[in-house]
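WARN retry 2 of 3 for item q-0093 after timeout on previous attempt; input resubmitted unchanged.
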Amino acid sequence: MKNQDSNRSVSTFVSTIVVASFFCAACVHAGPQPGKVLKVIDGDTLKIVSIDGNGKESDKPAVFGIRGVAVPGLDQPFGKQALDRLKELVEGKRVIWNGPVPRAHKKGHALHFRTENGNSLALQMLAEGLGRVVVSEMEDKSAKPAEPKKVSPQVTAAIAAEREAREARRGLWAGNDAESPKEIRNSVGSFKALLASLLSSESFLYRTAPTEGAKK
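OK item q-0093 returned
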């Protein structure tokens, strides 16, 4: 019953914030592309094929990461759980994507993936405590260097999803001294430093502070 309540809580949270992330992604990268997930390689990497307007699948599969989230490797704590959860969500199923951007913590590129009903895969994994936010993959790359840096609704939603998982002590954050695996911590950076940067922006919508699990 406890797990069911937790899953319902995650589902409600993701549904609440997915609208903001959807419209943000659409305005930065036009033309969402439908496709199918052939295989889930790990907790944040998918093998996919595109689907044309006639419903025909491409014969040229490609591998892309999930934009905006870094998940533990398969040899790290919660790596296998993240893999199994992502398989449950999308393997063999249709998805929608747009992008791409270079990956921040692995080789290759990442796409903003959504399920057919519009739920962001990155937000889902973050809300379940199975990954950490990669803000650099969510930033608006079209902004000029001289322009003030703004925090997008997509970044705001991702930060809120991770923070909610921390407070609920899900997945990576279940322990009293919870912190992300070394691979993620080194590539993504300090959560406290990230929050300090966001809190200095007038466009940041969630005036929050790091939870106890964020302490290093």
